[in-house]
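CORE FACILITY INTAKE
Project code: CF-77B
Contact: R.S. (postdoc)
Sample description: multi-component assembly, two entities in total
Requested service: structural model of the whole complex
Turnaround: standard
Below are the sequence entries exactly as provided by the requester. Do not edit them.
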Amino acid sequence: MKEVTYGLDIGGTNSVIGIVDREGQILAEDTVSTRKFPVVEDFVETCFSMMKKLEKSLDEEVKIMGIGIGAPNANYYNGTIEHPPNLVWEGIIPLADMFKKYYDVPVVLTNDANAAAMGEMIFGGAKGMKHFIEYTLGTGLGSGIVINGKILYGHTGFAGEIGHIIMKPGGRDCGCGRQGCLENYASATGLARTTLELLSKRRDESKLRKIPSNELNSKLVAEAAKEGDPIALESFDYTGKILALSIANAVAFSSPEAIFLSGGLSNAGDLIFKPTRKYMDETLQIIFKGTVKLLLSEIPENKGAIMGASALAWNEILNK
Amino acid sequence: MKEVTYGLDIGGTNSVIGIVDREGQILAEDTVSTRKFPVVEDFVETCFSMMKKLEKSLDEEVKIMGIGIGAPNANYYNGTIEHPPNLVWEGIIPLADMFKKYYDVPVVLTNDANAAAMGEMIFGGAKGMKHFIEYTLGTGLGSGIVINGKILYGHTGFAGEIGHIIMKPGGRDCGCGRQGCLENYASATGLARTTLELLSKRRDESKLRKIPSNELNSKLVAEAAKEGDPIALESFDYTGKILALSIANAVAFSSPEAIFLSGGLSNAGDLIFKPTRKYMDETLQIIFKGTVKLLLSEIPENKGAIMGASALAWNEILNK
């Protein structure tokens, strides 16, 4: 009987669930609408039905060892989701306990960025690393910090919010209600906002001027940059600069051996890695120069959510 | 026979050494000139003679359980001091091994800020805390970060350099060769530099205008502030603001339950605590509001160096 875990990633619109083996292979997966279930118990029951079907769909028998869940506002210590603004459920939801009613196995909850870091450690480029940080550069900027081989949860369970480190006091408005947080600069959305700012500041020609600001996104900026558009290139340069400053500061704090980038913006490749590396060389404190690598995540983006969530469960089992 | 450890704090000019019991009582102590010993082996031999004398001076027999050493550029992992710019010794000095020739006990080395944090955890206000940070606000700004009850050393052994987090790119020149690091703002020296900047910016009367800039220090600024001097008061306010920003960012990173302040500037009491608390309330991300206390170190300043170093040894022994 093959030992497997479940990886469940809960999103505001949809959730994905998959059966994952110790090597990170997703043996079966399915998607469920999160929004359709205003009552969380119904959601969990539906997940359970799906899970049974997934197990039956396999050629071999499996033994479920644990369930890992990536979810917004997840509290690792309590196994709860707490006041999630982007989910249909309200208050404090004891999700781990709800799943334990169906499966008597370890159920581990944390946010998606911590799950991504765990995926990197168990299945990806951070195998064997004790100190690293994963930056997920999507709509926002999430981060999972690994210290001594463990995700950093801190006193509250909510540590690892590098995206909400204030880089520019009084700067760009942030969804958290404050201003100048990193994620408004170093993320797919941040890149688009930087591009807008540059379009307002500079006078040179750019095909990006033809795009309405609410349609401007990191993909379009990347395409323009590849064609040599000067605004787009400066936009990536500026994004790399502020990302490198954040990395230099994170290194002064926790001295990791690697920083991994994942998420939409990381797909821009050299456009983002080159300036980030250049400014890291300039900005790192001398004692840390040459001690930290900047790496692309080795987890395929379309599998990251399930693999990361599953890795949470594997990690819990392996460290028992 | 009473179990004790040694605490040794190595400074550029002088070093202090003391015998410390499990409760943090310094049973005997002495001072030795560091500068007088250009050959490190001679320094260690002299320390050994001093230690034997200290032991003889006691009323009761003691058992030496370990030696803790606080030193600049100390590498915890290797037990070495590495290229210390402010010491008379050069290169990589295997100090732990040198002391082990005289005492066959655990010998632990780290920098003085990590030692201060350890002193706080073993003997001071952080007893029983698993996640906290100690800021030592002296000439510079040192920091010791405790995660899951352990000092954070990171991949290199040099983690915890919050004083060298860049708060203002292109800002004040720093001793590390870069610009805008926190310690040039939030430290005794930083306060004096802020005062100078305000004296240049503002036009109002201040008794601080009579003091040559190289004689301006945090004590004089504190005295003036107590008399209501507006420049001095604004100087403390600004220092508290940037310190609070640093704390809010550190909380986003590691979510500690407390921040301890120690060192010269912390003695200014309400002058520094009040603005720092006020700006922390303004600056902390909502999910962390009310989760972190700002506290004065409970280790007496004149005993901190020996107690901190000794605590390193006690911690090593207790966690064996």
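Facility notes:
- The helical segments of chain A are 40-56, 95-100, 112-123, 188-201, 218-226, 230-254, 270-283, 304-318.
- The mean pLDDT of chain A is 96.
Invoice: internal transfer
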